[in-house]
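Handoff note, outgoing to incoming analyst
You'll be picking up this chain. Sequence as last confirmed:
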Amino acid sequence: LERRLSISVDTPTKSQFPGETISYDITVENIGNYEDNVSLDNNSLDDDWSQNLSIYALNLEYLDSQTFQLNVNIGENAYVDDNFGSIVTAISDGDSVVEVDIGATTYALQYASVDIVTPSDVIEEPYRDVIFIFEIYNSGNGPDSFNITGHSSGNWTFEMDKDITTELDRFGTDDVEVIVSVPAGTPVGTIDTFTITVDSLFDSTIINS
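Most recent structure output, in case you need it:
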């Protein structure tokens, strides 16, 4: 009589966005020559990553196999390509020397996000210039640059000192200086709203203004 086990995983590496969960299919097979009860265990993860198994005990007939899930929760604050290795261990209850394990590595995907800090409103006389400083803030989880476009609601003349930011790491900022010219003869009380719109070079669907 012999107790033997094998263990496999559907794929050794997967990726997912921070704050999300990804699952691996783990299969344990009884390759011994009689029925066996099997205990399952997994290692612990750090930096607000976590994981769990869908089941922690198996009953396997001779040559029987069972598939269960390893669920890995990627940390909310994970930086792009941060990764952790998971280890799942299967141990025979009949003979604790009979132990097999399998590893899987999960990577954090990059996502884009951008915020804009807008300056205060200004009152100025006609035929004068107003200077605004907008701050672009990379709130994604990896390096990114951002295209910048400006718009004056009254079609007033303006100049921007850049139309794209430098590459910003996570939490990095870049300032955009805008000079808006108040046209001569503009009636008192006229309001012009100047807006900048930024979009991510990494993911052009991410836009803020």
